[in-house]
Amino acid sequence: LQKISKEDYYENYFLRDPNIIHVVDPHYFYSPASGIILYQKMVNPDEEIIEIKGKNFTLKNLLQNDSVNFSALVIGIFLTQWDVHITRLPYSGIVNYKKLEKIHSHNEPMINEENDILRGVIDYNDQQYLFDNERFLDEVITTAWNYKYYIVQIADTEVNVVQHMKEAGKAMLQNERLSSIRFGSQVDLILPLPIPFEYNLINQNYVHVEAGVDKLIWIK
Questions:
Q1: Which 3 state secondary structure label does DSSP give 131?
Q2: Which of 31, 35, 87, 218 could form a disulfide with 79 if both were Cys (CB 3.0 to 4.6 A apart)?
Q3: Which segments within 16-172 are labelled E, that is strand?
Q4: Contact 83/183 with Cβ under 8 angstroms?
Q5: Which residues touch 159 (CB under 8 Å, ≥6 apart)?
Q6: 190-203: pLDDT as tens digits
Q7: Whose CA is closest to 187, among 30, 51, 68?
Q8: What digits encode the pLDDT tens for the residues 135-170?
Q9: How far, in Å, CA of 147 to CA of 149, rounded?
Q10: DSSP state of 104
Q11: Model pTM score
């Protein structure tokens, strides 16, 4: 195989934004990100999504909001350096977003978790970044059910911006480009309960999905 420099890799491969067939299908929630599914879980506000070094990571931690009082289905996707770092809207709606600041003076690196994933191992003890790192909270209101769901985009130590493609408050179609998030990162899809439709999860944990291509949830 031909070797390429780190600079060429990041300029020509990592920062790629390939065209995909734009599908709008109201029977599915599509994946908002390309990466590995780490968890898919129904949780109460204070219930653990995962345990990290003996400490429960909860919905309140994910949203950085101690006043959260709803339960939700949470799906977490980890983006490695090999994945396209363009997020897409999983279901059509009106999108608002805001930045949630990091807990400490700097973001925690995600490289240990990435190395584990690339070796085919999931070690939740390497996910301290879930507690500490800055993130963007996207709020999406679907007109079909007047239902609000959320997307959380968590930045790595190298990231200081998540760049959205449209102004807040705009209507967007399913699988439109939502934002770009550079270097390692994680994207979580949050569906608060009660969910106004019957559904089935399509994938198992630890499988790879592509944003705007692979389906996460089938709406019955």
A1: helix
A2: 35
A3: 28-30, 35-43, 48-52, 55-58, 72-79, 86-88, 93-100, 135-142, 147-155, 162-164, 170-172
A4: no
A5: 107, 134, 181, 182, 183, 184, 185
A6: 999 999 999 999 99
A7: 30
A8: 889 999 998 899 999 999 987 765 555 778 888 999
A9: 7
A10: S
A11: 0.88
